[in-house]
Fold:
Amino acid sequence: MISFAFYLAFLLIFVVFAVYAERKTAAFIQNRLGPMEVGPKGILQTVADLLKMLQKEDIRASAVDIIPYLLAPFIVFAAVFTGFAVLPVNADLSGSTITSGVFFLLAIVSLDVLGILMAGWASNNKYSLYGAMRSVAQIISYEVPLGLSVLCVIIISGTLDLHQMSVLQSGGILSWYIISHPVLIIPFFIFFISGLAESNRTPFDLPESESELIGGYHTEYSGFRWGIFMLSEYGMMLLLSILASILFFGGWNSPMEKIANGPIWSTFWLLSKSLLLIFVQMWVRWTLPRLRVDQLMSLSWKYLTPISIVMLFVCALWKLWLIG
Amino acid sequence: MSYLGNISQGIQTTWKGMMLSIQYFFQARKGRKKESVTEDNYFEKANGTFTVQYPHEQIPVPDHGRYQLHNEIDDCIVCDKCAKVCPVDCIDIEPVRSPEVFGQTSDGTPLRIHAAKFDIDMAKCCFCGLCTVVCPTECLTMTKEFDFSTNDILDHNFSFSKMTDQEIAEKKQEFEDYQADKLKAKPELPAIKKESDVMKKPAAKPVFKPRIPKKK
Structure:
């Protein structure tokens, strides 16, 4: 319950400043300054945008299928936010102790595709429907390498509980899985790439692609409902980054074995690792161009999936022969 | 290309792109210096943020830039040359002649004509600078001021005359009285009357006739 309250508050604050960070990162990579007017160095720009967005009229096109149209953003957000239930915050706050832990997370997060499809279908608009169908195809395809790369970690740790997994990695930077088991480096990259695709981020933002689909499945949404979609997208980014830092980078463990281990410190370590990964996601977004649909599919089915199956096999051998 | 070749190319190109953009990210700590176009290294600024936050900071404009017109009305002899040369007719002058020399400009030219109206419509101005070239007393100049946008286009008409309506009426009356006195003194001479008629007509523009080369 405490971890729920923590993650909800953190997510809302995070989204406000992540949008700012995203715009600043974009600006710096493109030799610009980004928002500079609202507050010192423009730090309150997103707050101003948020206030504007909340005051906007809730426009509903006359031909929309009203019930799915109104429900969709909340299904997407609920699906993404339920994923936070199993995440630990620090050594004392373990989140929900479900035995199926990380599988529950992956399963419930995949439900957001339902909300996206509802949004695209109910908008009654060809671009929204295109976006939604691309999103479904993409998320279902990338579920496979994502799940397989998570399975590699599960083989090595022998547990599905994310809190337990963090406990197993305690003892300084050398016992983090990506360093103590270098065989997990490739699964980490597969996880990261599939995670980008899962959260509809560039270079896998085909469902939204502003330049061709004018926003994709959320074209017809405005104001608060649109904001919920945005919140879910950033929530998904945060969720996958936290998951990556728990699976590969020791979760809430400090990089030094005996230093900085208190509850506040361990929360700090978990969040700073995730925020670093989020910065990498933003850096990728402003570097790589969007993939074509066929390239997207071939990347998933021809490259990531076979490689992750091979890595699963390699991890199993590693577990059998080196850990025992 | 082979399967493994594809993978290695994908990793290499992604790595190269990522390294390139992170360089730009760190270079953004440095900003562009607000140097004038006349500086030697003006075009050598490939690195760092390029944005100039205009209302708060601006790049200095060169001294010989052609921006807003300014007329030093005390030095203006109302010769009308600027209005004649203006290709877009943006200068509107209403002269009132004076019976005698009533002052001097700063370069010693005697003042004989009052400027009842000296309006420059910057909305029409094409910033060619011809008027400043022909000005005999160099009272009409182009300043460095370029930010004079307004909400109403009529506010782009800048009025330089300092005379009040009352003064204008007085000076007009003065000159009419003088003319009438002159007519009384020499009523038999119609030449003066004729001349004043000519003066009322708008000044003729120099006509440009393009020479068309004959075909042989």
Chain A is about 65% helix and 0% strand. The mean pLDDT of chain A is 86. The first helix of chain A runs from residue 2 to 29. The two ends of chain A are 37 Å apart (CA to CA).
